Amino acid sequence: MEFDHILIRYGEMFIKGKNRRKFESKLQSNLIKKLKEFPSVRVSKKRERMYVLLNGTDPHPVMKKCQQVFGIHTLSFAIKVNKSEEEIKQAALYAINDAPEARTFKVSSKRADKDFPIGSQDLNHIIGGYVLSNTEGITVDVHNPDVELKVELRNGAAYITAKDYPGAGGLPVGTSGKSLLLLSGGIDSPVAGFLTMKRGVELEAIHFHSPPYTSERAKQKVLDLAGELSKYGTKVKVHIIPFTNIQQKIHREMPEGYSMTIMRRMMMRISEQLADREGILSLNTGESLGQVASQTMESMNTINEVTNLPILRPLAAMDKLEIIEVSRKIGTYNISVLPYEDCCTIFVPKAPKTKPTREKANFYESKVDFSQDIAEAINQSVVVEMDRNQTEKDEFDELL
Ligand code: ATP
Ligand code: MG
């Protein structure tokens, strides 16, 4: 006896009609991509259900991969057997043994095929009794069992499932459009990217790099972060923008107190132009209110002036400790804390204005023309595609 498939439950009841079809086909193709390393595994969809057919593959590594795919609520291993009492008993016993931690269980039978000679209630008793007399340390609890052993009789066969495994939740990546993530080497922006992906958004990333002030290793760190993110969805295209000239010009020609604000405005302008070129409709940052000088309400207001693309800020209302917790769970924390310098720390003024105004920023910027520098930075950008979708990802547990 062996599990032969995994039952996928997505249960986003609110998704109807056309959206539902899009949701299902994305989920199916994301699962297929994620499970590529198991050549015999197939993903099939029948009516309201999705199945991963194991075809002899070791079940647990496949389950682990499925648990990393957004859009799944819960999953269960399942066994298909003939509609015979004996086979159902054996399958039930096998399935319950996958949950050695369970102290209580109940059996719930459903009979779509009415030709089976035993009624649902009777079948519950027969199977429950068989499990009780062939296991130790587990009792029946019909109200709040640790495991619900489900027996379904339909389409001429019997399907048995036991334990529910938690899925990653969220929506399948690719069902909510695309966002351009401003990815630094810090702790916050990868978490912002992750949370955005969880809502079904595909990511491209943009990184501002200032050689020789920032090293190749600092750039590699950002690519590694993008690689980690790609494991939760689809490949992540990273646009590396040469930012040295603009930073030097700001440093030379703008008042020190405003250099940080103006640098961020330049980042937004470049990001918006790149997003337009790539057909991306929103930006995404790791900004969190009150964290540093550039993230006061006044700063956000002044920085935001230069773009009218929506800026998704999933961390805006999160505490640093909560952000760190997520970054540990998703495996980006250990990369983020590597000590390579970032373009902002090098040019950071001693006392950046915490309450900049739009008027002053516009006034200072009107003295110097940056449009040529912006166009050059975009023209000279380099694209690196990161795709580590297949790689093992042990840290991934139940996420948020
Ligand atoms: P992070 O941990 O994400 O670096 P932070 O708390 O250090 O965030 P800031 O340095 O003020 O905050 O940056 C705010 C946001 O601006 C970042 O979350 C990121 O989205 C973006 N950002 C900062 N530096 C860069 C960079 N070099 N390239 C791309 N985006 C950047
Ligand atoms: Mg930073």
TrEMBL record:
Q: Which family does it belong to?
A: Belongs to the ThiI family.
At which positions is ATP bound?
Answer: 182-183, 207-208, 264, 286, 295
Name the Enzyme Commission number(s) assigned to this protein: 2.8.1.4
Q: Which UniProt keywords apply?
A: ATP-binding, Cytoplasm, Nucleotide-binding, RNA-binding, Thiamine biosynthesis, Transferase, tRNA-binding
Main site of residence? Answer: cytoplasm
Task: Name the source's superkingdom.
Answer: Bacteria
The protein in question is named Probable tRNA sulfurtransferase
Q: Which residues form a coiled coil?
A: none
